[in-house]
Amino acid sequence: MENEVSKIFGIRAVIEAINSGKTISKIYLQKGLSGALSSELNTLIKKHNIATSYVPIEKLNRFSKNSNHQGVAAQISPIDFVDLETLITTTLEKSSTPLFLLLDQISDVRNFGAIIRTAECTGVNGIIIQKQGNAPVSADTVKTSAGAAFKMPICKVDHIKDAVFQLQAEAIQIVAATEKTDNLIYAVDLKLPTAIIMGSEDRGINPSILKIVDQKAKLPLLGEIQSLNVSVACGAFLYEATRQRL
26, 39, 87, 235: least CB-packed within 10 angstroms? Predict the structure, then answer.
């Protein structure tokens, strides 16, 4: 479980946190919660498109030692996220060959943290994630990233597909890491302005996204197990980009 310091409890406290501009990674709501304050909170959640999970009261009780949560807990992000358009613009001003990383709903916080760490070490200019379905930037994420989460620009978007279109409009090629191709990553020119997409641990990259990418590539798997941990695969892709660019 994430560090309890990064959570707040109670409907009013969460409402005030949202209204004060705090970056909320995720809100946990007790199933069946009702009332005027609950309705106000739901309105704010929809307005700010905050990731939400409806959970049984037992889970909220585990989050809060004294169980005084009023049916609501919120995960406060330890970092501030950047706007996608700002990220692209500022990066292109500094580099003609940017390298971005898009994560299509990576769900494990430790995988997420390991990916952030590798991305920082390989000179990635920014990581783009989806607001819904992605692991939060929690205390565990920061710890696994060895602090790289404080150095790496991270952007949240409504849909990964929107980010793909925006990057393509800036002549940045989109390379999908997927086993659904015969093309090895070593055949892809990663010296070009590039954004690499990594898919979720269980289903990979969404098929609708695969239809709009510029390149598909995979790693050679020579053993009997035909899959890699996503953070390991991401590291192999990013270091191939580094090798080509050095």
Answer: 39
